[in-house]
Records
---
Amino acid sequence: MSIPTIVPVQNAALALQLGKAIDNKTKPLGSLGMLEGLARQLGLIQQSSRLTLDAPAILVFAGDHGVVAEGVSAYPQDVTWQMVENFLAGGAAINVFARQNGCALQVVDAGVNHDFGPRAGLVDCKVAHGTRNFAQEAAMTAAECDRALQHGMALAAELPGNVLGFGEMGIGNTTAAAALMHKLTGIPVSDCVGAGTGLSAEGILRKQQVIEAAAAKHADVSAPLDVLATFGGFEIAMMVGAMLKAAERRMVLLIDGFIVTSALLVAARVQPAILDYCVFAHCSDESGHQRMLEQLGARPLLHLGLRLGEGTGSALALPLLQAAVNFMNEMATFESAQVSEKSE
Ligand SMILES: Cc1cc2ncn([C@H]3O[C@H](COP(=O)(O)O)[C@@H](O)[C@H]3O)c2cc1C
Ligand SMILES: O=C(O)c1cccnc1
């Protein structure tokens, strides 16, 4: 399988030009805070000081996890397919926020343990009816993981716009994400696990023990894509593929919560330059997310106490991206508005 090549966005001359354009706007220097950094990043990604947000889309990848047999989620596995139905009917949180912000939404069956049949609005990329239980054996074969990555790349290759938000649905996937985080960063499992959909303290401890035992069992697995196949999910692997392809195409990647960030952790181990293309929508309340973001050197835009997933953070951050684009394109300069510049 060929992995997309991602080019770092570095361009000293353009960075200088963008900095000047931002500083010339009618505002005290630096006063638009993180929006200024966003504008600079978008300019470097788009190789222009004329920024655009074209046809923003969010892909919600759904998949099931064999590890739910260990009792690691507060909800039953059937919620995965039931929520996919909810997405298709337009009634989930992500539908509401995507609609609100004029963002296209595509739902992808990456590997849900349910037969939907041909359905309008559902993209069928099903690799299998859920992964295997990684407490006992690798979640996926290398071939299955490869198929998931390829599907993700193909999906991202077809998108018409220049911004792609990521979302996921999969009961048990905070366990897979925590295992990926532990294996890829070496952070103790106790600092990677959280309540997910709402586990009790006892439940979180059980989740920790399941991951610790599995990590010991698969101690020899260390290459990022092997770690992905052993502990990940089909929706996570498909996100990795889509992220790599979207960054190769110089799209802006909008990163949601704990699970989406775990996919990025894998992608960044494979192609570190992908981070240049990422906007981190928010810091989730899932307890490992902050440390995961720190590992990536990420500064998230929002701190709303979200712990939902589905791409809800991505959808909610989209207006901030639009604000960064709009201030660059529409704000007057000191010169054009004849406003006096700083005197000291
Ligand atoms: C009704 C419902 C809607 C959701 N939407 C996203 N998730 C979120 O919760 C799941 C991960 O948590 P855990 O690892 O604890 O199972 C994922 O599906 C995630 O997207 C939901 C969970 C539920 C119950
Ligand atoms: O941060 C997330 O994306 C998250 C947290 C808890 C449950 N589901 C998703």
---
Amino acid sequence: MNGLHVSGLSVTLGGNRILSDVSFDVEPGHVVGLIGANGAGKSTALKAVLGIVAPEAGDIRVGEQDVVDLSPRERAKKLSYVPQGAPVHWPLTAERLVGLGRTPHLTPWQDVTDADQAMIRCVMQETDCWHLRDRLVTTLSGGERSRVLLARTMAVGAPFMLADEPTSSLDPLHQLQVMDIMRGQAACGAGVLVVLHDLSFALRYCDRLVLLHQGGVLASGSPAEVLTDANLETAFQVKVARWTEGGEQFLAPHAANGG
Ligand SMILES: Nc1ncnc2c1ncn2[C@@H]1O[C@H](COP(=O)(O)OP(=O)(O)OP(=O)(O)O)[C@@H](O)[C@H]1O
């Protein structure tokens, strides 16, 4: 019962049912991939877990605790979040922005401690953005900003990390590094819930997958159980080529209609 448990989650937004009876678990030490076509409800599911959108029904628990019983500070300590393509409007340095990740652990007006500072440096090095520490985030490229925002999320040190398409806008090497970081977070005991569009990453980096389709769970289980030809054709209207290279499995989609 130490995991993040979502059961029977339903969300209606703007009068439209977006999620219906969605259930999944994220256990400590696991990377769980949330996949599905555009508009399937992936970001909405993350936002419901985080309390950014209010569910119409459902039970969301961290361990034994219902998230609605957690104060915003307690929730922020337990669930860290990498938002999708988040713009940053404040002219803060990258180091200062990453330092905001420590806010849930500080009392009001308390400055970061030496231990916090060491952690900030560590996560910025891990995400390859320590060299950007004195730059204003408003001047960074999209990929540089993404890595700084990931570092801020890691700086929280929460037992669960929710990441919404953390590899979008990154070059191929940084995409691989970010997926390795997701695995590294899990190796250190965190439960990671990550929204992905890259099916090869879903196959290679995730312990379990949840495939959303039209607001419901079409399939969940191991990558091999979920990434079947039939599920991929239903969810994405694609066929896939599959191959193994250097001991790693790859998937490349192509249009189901042959186009
Ligand atoms: N505030 C809102 N009001 C009405 N509809 C909304 C609202 N927010 C999201 N939606 C709709 O809910 C559906 C699911 O959106 P969501 O962002 O969760 O999808 P997603 O699976 O993350 O998609 P993508 O892969 O494109 O990021 C979409 O059809 C979207 O237009």
